[in-house]
User: Which sequence fits this backbone?
């Protein structure tokens, strides 16, 4: 008997700000969560699994309309016709209190209650699943303490949406420890909430499968679910399945020594070619990060439109389906302000350098930036690729870009 463990599908995630940056590609990228779910169902049917577990955050939040729920119900109906049960647990994004719309799901779908931990038995398979859904988004209690003891003679699986004792980038919901989990005596813990795949223990198995489909550049790399093999009530093999539809990649290119656009183009081509191969035929959404010391630094900072076009040329040469989400220029001039030609420019460079290091002088700029940030419409920072960046980092980047642009133009390096 085999079963599938998935989590954090975030079906129809709005991908805030993405449409503004993706243009004609927006529909493909936004629809990726749906197509990844279809791949999950296809896999369940092909593997003839005994059941499917979705360990929280099936939805990204309340539905904008009934189409999200209808799509999920249609996919579950495919599994119902094959006699495959589906066990759902609500997480922080699809907590009971957040969902104002609902549809009647096919009879093969069972959802853990929010009132207390309960056991769902699949008698024909000899499996007992234990879990408790989130009643509200912010669950800060250790839910594991209320989970029931294992059922004798059955394969016992705990289903839990949790950050454990803390994970970078994830809110500390339903905190617990590995000791809490292992002490329960279950055979397998199907976890959700953390979007990076992690096998935390093998006796018992404790696994985050990661999310099914990456949704932004910080969720790069292969994404999917976990296929678990059992024999006579014991787990014999655990297998990571890659099911994402669009592959996100952070491509860092060291520009050290690159002194011409031709050299830069070849470095871009090589990076895109490797990433396309790694994506294994999937569409590639890439964030490009240029680092290192290069004589092109001033040009890279002062000619963003030309740079974007040169990057697109390299992506076209690489083949495949590549969309550039953002170009992040973090390069440095190998001879900062050393060849500007003239005392006036050298003095200007020194003044800018002193200003950037003077917290008192920057305070009014920081205040102005914070005020402007609050006036921006929802999604504006995300559309520019600045979501999740604090005011200090944003100000530092703006000043660095302004310095490079000003000095490049004044020195004639355009």
Assistant:
């Amino acid at each position: 008997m085999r079963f599938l463990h998935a989590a954090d599908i975030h079906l129809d995630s709005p991908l805030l700000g993405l449409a503004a940056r993706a243009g004609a590609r927006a529909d493909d990228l936004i629809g990726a969560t749906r197509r990844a779910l279809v791949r999950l169902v296809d896999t369940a049917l092909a593997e003839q699994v005994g059941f499917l577990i979705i360990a929280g955050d099936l939805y990204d939040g309340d539905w904008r309309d009934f189409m999200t729920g209808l799509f999920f119900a249609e996919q579950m109906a495919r599994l119902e016709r094959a006699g495959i049960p589906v066990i759902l647990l609500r997480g922080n994004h699809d907590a009971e209190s957040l969902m104002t719309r609902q549809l009647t799901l096919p009879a093969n779908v069972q959802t853990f209650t929010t009132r207390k931990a309960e056991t769902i038995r699949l008698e024909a398979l000899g499996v007992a699943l234990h879990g408790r859904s989130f009643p509200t988004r912010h669950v800060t209690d250790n839910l594991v303490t209320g989970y029931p003891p294992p059922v004798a003679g059955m394969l016992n699986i705990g289903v839990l949406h949790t950050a454990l004792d803390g994970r970078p980038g994830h809110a500390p919901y339903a905190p617990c420890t590995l000791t809490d989990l292992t002490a329960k005596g279950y055979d397998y813990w199907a976890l959700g909430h953390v979007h990076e795949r992690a096998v935390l223990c093998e006796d018992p198995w404790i696994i985050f499968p990661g999310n099914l489909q990456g949704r932004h550049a910080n969720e790069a790399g292969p994404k999917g679910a976990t296929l678990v093999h059992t024999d006579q009530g014991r787990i014999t093999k655990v297998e990571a399945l890659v099911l994402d539809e669009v592959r996100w990649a952070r491509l860092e290119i060291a520009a050290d020594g690159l002194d011409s656009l031709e050299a830069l183009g070849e470095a871009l081509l090589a990076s895109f070619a490797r990433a396309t191969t790694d994506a294994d035929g999937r569409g590639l959404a890439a964030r490009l990060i240029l680092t290192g010391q290069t004589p092109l630094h001033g040009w890279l900072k002062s000619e963003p439109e030309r740079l974007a076009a040169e990057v697109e040329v390299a992506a076209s040469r690489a083949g495949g389906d590549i969309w550039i989400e953002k170009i992040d220029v973090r390069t440095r001039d190998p001879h900062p302000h050393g060849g500007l030609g003239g005392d006036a420019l050298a003095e200007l460079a020194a003044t800018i350098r002193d200003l950037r290091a003077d917290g008192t002088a920057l305070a009014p700029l920081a205040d102005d930036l914070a005020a402007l940030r609050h006036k921006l419409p929802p999604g504006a920072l995300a559309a520019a690729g600045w979501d999740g960046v604090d005011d200090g980092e944003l100000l530092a980047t703006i000043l660095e870009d302004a310095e490079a642009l000003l000095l490049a133009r004044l020195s004639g390096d355009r």
In short: The mean pLDDT is 87.
